[in-house]
Amino acid sequence: MIDTILAAVPVYGLWIVTVTTFLSCLALPVPASLVMLTAGAFVAAGDLPALWTGLLAWIGAVAGDQAGFALGRGGGRLLVRLSQGGKAASLMARARELSDRYGGPSVFLSRWLLSPLGPYMNFVTGAAGMAWPRFAVWGLAGEAVWVAIYIGLGFAFAGQIAAVATLAADFSGTLAAGAVTLGLGLWLRAALKADRGLRK
């Protein structure tokens, strides 16, 4: 599937970039970062216009964020039920904790630095009732950073897209796993303290 999507970038160009970033922000398994890296390489080659590539990638991502937020706002309980067990459940739990503790900055960081958490943060912040303007402002800024990083890397390293994609995915995945582990550790520590308090 990834090869098919990447092969479509030079043919459908801007549409593929826009649709892929939109779908990725709804937690669908599409290679948005890899598509943006590839698009950046096509920008470097002069096959795609830089301004429109960046702008439409950003619009797709922002629209996906807004759709995820609206889904969370409208169906928070359903989302919790659907994400019981597995990786999605742990990502939802971590996103909820970040949202409760750090609000806007956690939305910003989950757009690009902790991007595997991003779609779940959209759902959670909507379900938790975060004010829409606050979500929107932090999300707009975070998606601008995400798009600039990946299209910029694709542009700068057009000849080494596969190596850059692997490095970026490993880095992002490691950060997200570390965030989930840290969150679970803090939760466990709080639970142990509460248990000791009850015993006393």
UniProtKB/TrEMBL annotation:
<keyword id="KW-1133">Transmembrane helix</keyword>
<feature type="transmembrane region" description="Helical">
    <location>
        <begin position="171"/>
        <end position="192"/>
    </location>
</feature>
<dbReference type="InterPro" id="IPR032816">
    <property type="entry name" value="VTT_dom"/>
</dbReference>
<dbReference type="GO" id="GO:0005886">
    <property type="term" value="C:plasma membrane"/>
</dbReference>
<dbReference type="InterPro" id="IPR051311">
    <property type="entry name" value="DedA_domain"/>
</dbReference>
<feature type="transmembrane region" description="Helical">
    <location>
        <begin position="12"/>
        <end position="45"/>
    </location>
</feature>
<keyword id="KW-1003">Cell membrane</keyword>
<dbReference type="Pfam" id="PF09335">
    <property type="entry name" value="VTT_dom"/>
</dbReference>
<protein>
    <submittedName>
        <fullName>DedA family protein</fullName>
    </submittedName>
</protein>
<keyword id="KW-0812">Transmembrane</keyword>
<keyword id="KW-0472">Membrane</keyword>
<feature type="domain" description="VTT">
    <location>
        <begin position="30"/>
        <end position="154"/>
    </location>
</feature>
<feature type="transmembrane region" description="Helical">
    <location>
        <begin position="144"/>
        <end position="165"/>
    </location>
</feature>
<feature type="transmembrane region" description="Helical">
    <location>
        <begin position="51"/>
        <end position="71"/>
    </location>
</feature>
